[in-house]
């Protein structure tokens, strides 16, 4: 860690200003009872279950969260009135956005109630938690009629303790999921992707000892040691023995926690350590043991650094052969349901289809299923938080929210060797409040995780030099990032002739690595127009790639790119009735996986780059 670094728990504590609750952020592999599957759902556009018609508590007829068997109650008392019955509401299979539950849900944004009953067998003296992979965007959770917790932010995991509320036998779990965006949500209401409301990632019931290992972090540090941290939670957290083992390396790191239950330790690198890379995505089983608890993971070890304008993976310069990806599975009607197979299908296309070694997981933290698959398959990852376009940068509460999201993202995913870059924003209009906001986030990312690089996708100015277009980077944020990243669309959103694109020059810092975090053009799969080469044709998109790649080849500091985008994705902004119909068509494949001509152009380019790198 860098000087002045603080532990994540302490950091979250300082943000929350209250006792730091358990997060189970590193707990996706813990033994658990899955609560995925059939749930009842009920839409609530007027928020009847949140407040009475004159405000205040909702009346008994509207309390969707109450622990009441509505049908039995109405039968038992003919005067009883209920205007909901979760037990008899329609059923959907979770995790999934509600947008695909039924045709009438397709464009619904707002509040939806979910309910499921499940049996539990809580062990006396142990603790129980509900761990949600993600609920987009706000979640309020009731168990057996009692409100047990809430969370804001659609893309990070959270845990809610239910010890004492969970009962032996049948339990009633109710989640109010609210997708309503506002000026103070992250992202704000206008983006260029679908707002997939709902319980979009797994729900698990986890039982732990009274004192347990809440989070842990193990990695290869820039100074060449294996370092580990763990945070215990519970009455016996202080001065406890902690042991981390990597059996395959015969390595053990041990020690005792401090007064706050935090432990750190490190060892020199075992000589037989095989470093993780896209070519050799070697993962090691590790386990952390403390008291009666064990937390297991599979972790790779690698270093990432910048030197001048180079990015060094394990000490060697690397070119990032990437593509951007939204969290949307391949298929005609995606629902943001990222199973291991769905993640594999997307990432295998990048690795094997495009000959890539890198993905930009846009524009928010993706499912942990995806980042685990990236570790396994061998793809470097850019991960980001949804600080996108017109955020309320002058609002301190929004900044606090963004800092929490970034901390939650890092806490969940810092054991993934694949992730090399934390990005703090995308295409944000430059202003003093915005730059202060983003500098705060970049500093947080550096402080919380000195083992990775920090970036942000920026925009550039345009000028004319000697009769040709020149792109100039004039963004004060550059001094706070390790990697300069720019989204560029000359020849798509501009009227530049494609033949002129290779002549465009770039004025960017000479001493920092540059990546194109986006470049791209739309094409409707199957639409060809080689004669006029009009926009939206596969021919135009392919030619856009050829010419833009020629331009890229002339930029000495360019060390990689993640063109926009692997697959056509849902975007309510895109409503051309012939070409778009609610989809952003910049994919190299169609929603169902049909490859466009540009796929081959980029795959050939990357195959050549890969061959050069292997020399
Ligand atoms: C961008 C945005 C991305 C959009 C893309 C587009 O610059 O970062 O979210 O989807 O352009 O297609 O315009």
Structure description:
The chain is α+β, with helices and mostly antiparallel strands. The protein folds into 3 domains: 8-12 and 211-304, Immunoglobulins (Immunoglobulin-like, Sandwich), CATH 2.60.40.10; 31-208, Galactose-binding domain-like (Jelly Rolls), CATH 2.60.120.260; 319-614, Glycosidases (TIM Barrel), CATH 3.20.20. The protein is built from 8 helices and 36 strands. The strands form 9 sheets. It has an 8-stranded parallel barrel, surrounded by 5 helices. It has a 6-stranded antiparallel sheet with strand order 3-2-5-11-8-9, with no helix packed on it. Strands 1-13-6-10 form a 4-stranded antiparallel sheet, with no helix packed on it. A hairpin with a 2-residue loop joins strand 22 (310-313) and strand 23 (316-317). Helix 3 packs across helix 4 and helix 5 (396-413) runs parallel beside helix 6 (432-448). It is globular and about 85 Å long. The two termini are 35 Å apart. Residues 1-7 and 11-19 have low confidence and may be disordered. The chain binds (2S,3S,4S,5R)-3,4,5-trihydroxy-6-oxo-oxane-2-carboxylic acid. (2S,3S,4S,5R)-3,4,5-trihydroxy-6-oxo-oxane-2-carboxylic acid binds at residues 192, 363, 426-427, 487, 518, 564, 584, 586.
């Amino acid at each position: 860690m860098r000087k002045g670094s603080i532990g994540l728990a302490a950091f979250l504590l300082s943000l929350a200003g209250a006792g730091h609750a358990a997060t189970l952020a590193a707990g996706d592999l813990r033994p658990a009872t899955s609560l995925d599957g059939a749930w009842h759902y009920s839409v609530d556009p007027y928020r009847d279950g949140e407040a009475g018609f004159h405000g205040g508590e909702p009346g008994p007829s509207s309390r969707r969260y109450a622990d009441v068997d509505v049908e039995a109650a109405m039968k038992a008392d003919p005067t009883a009135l209920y205007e909901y019955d979760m037990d008899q509401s329609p059923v959907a299979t979770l995790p999934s956005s509600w947008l695909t539950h039924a045709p009438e849900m397709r464009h619904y944004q707002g509040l939806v109630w979910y309910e499921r009953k499940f049996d539990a067998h809580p062990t006396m003296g142990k603790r129980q938690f509900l761990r949600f992979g993600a609920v987009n965007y706000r979640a309020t959770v009731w168990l057996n009629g009692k409100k047990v917790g809430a969370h804001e932010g659609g893309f990070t995991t959270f845990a809610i303790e239910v010890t004492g509320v969970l009962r032996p036998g049948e339990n009633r779990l109710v989640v109010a999921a609210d997708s309503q965006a506002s000026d103070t949500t992250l992202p704000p209401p206008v983006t260029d992707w679908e707002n997939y409301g709902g319980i979009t990632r797994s729900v698990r019931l986890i039982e732990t000892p009274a004192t347990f290992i809440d989070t842990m972090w193990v990695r290869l540090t820039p100074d060449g040691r294996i370092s580990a941290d763990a945070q215990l939670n519970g009455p016996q957290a202080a001065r406890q023995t902690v042991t981390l083992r990597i059996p395959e390396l015969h390595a053990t790191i041990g020690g005792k926690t401090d007064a706050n239950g935090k432990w750190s330790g490190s060892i020199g690198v075992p000589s037989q350590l095989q470093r993780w890379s896209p070519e050799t995505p070697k993962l090691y089983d590790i386990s952390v043991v403390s008291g009666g608890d064990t937390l297991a993971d599979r972790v790779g070890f690698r270093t990432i650094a910048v030197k001048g304008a180079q990015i060094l993976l394990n000490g060697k310069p690397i070119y990032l052969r990437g593509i951007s990806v939204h969290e949307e599975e391949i298929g005609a009607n995606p629902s943001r349901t990222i199973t291991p197979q769905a993640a594999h299908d997307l990432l295998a296309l990048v690795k094997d289809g495009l000959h890539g070694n890198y993905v930009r997981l846009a524009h928010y933290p993706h499912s942990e299923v995806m980042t685990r698959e990236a570790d396994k398959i061998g793809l470097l990852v850019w991960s980001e938080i949804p600080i996108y376009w017109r955020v309320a940068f002058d609002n301190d509460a929004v900044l606090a929210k963004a800092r929490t999201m970034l901390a939650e993202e890092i806490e969940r995913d810092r054991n993934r060797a694949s992730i090399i870059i934390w990005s703090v924003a995308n295409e944000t209009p430059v202003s003093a409040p915005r730059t202060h906001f983003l500098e705060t986030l970049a500093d947080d990312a550096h402080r919380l995780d000195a083992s990775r690089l920090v970036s942000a996708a920026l925009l550039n100015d345009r000028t004319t030099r000697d009769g040709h277009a020149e792109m100039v980077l004039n963004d004060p944020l550059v001094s706070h990032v390790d990697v300069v990243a720019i989204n560029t669309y000359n020849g798509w959103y501009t009227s530049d002739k494609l033949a002129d694109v290779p002549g465009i020059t770039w004025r960017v810092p000479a001493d920092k690595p540059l990546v194109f975090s986006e470049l791209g053009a739309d094409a409707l799969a199957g639409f060809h127009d080689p004669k006029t080469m009009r926009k939206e044709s596969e021919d135009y998109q392919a030619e856009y790639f050829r010419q833009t790649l020629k331009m890229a080849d002339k930029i000495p500091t360019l060390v990689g790119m993640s063109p926009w985008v692997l697959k056509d994705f849902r975007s309510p902004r895109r409503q051309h009735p012939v070409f778009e119909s609610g989809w952003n068509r910049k994919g190299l494949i169609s929603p169902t996986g049909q490859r466009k001509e540009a796929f081959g152009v980029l795959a050939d380019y990357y195959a050549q780059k890969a061959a050069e790198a292997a020399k």
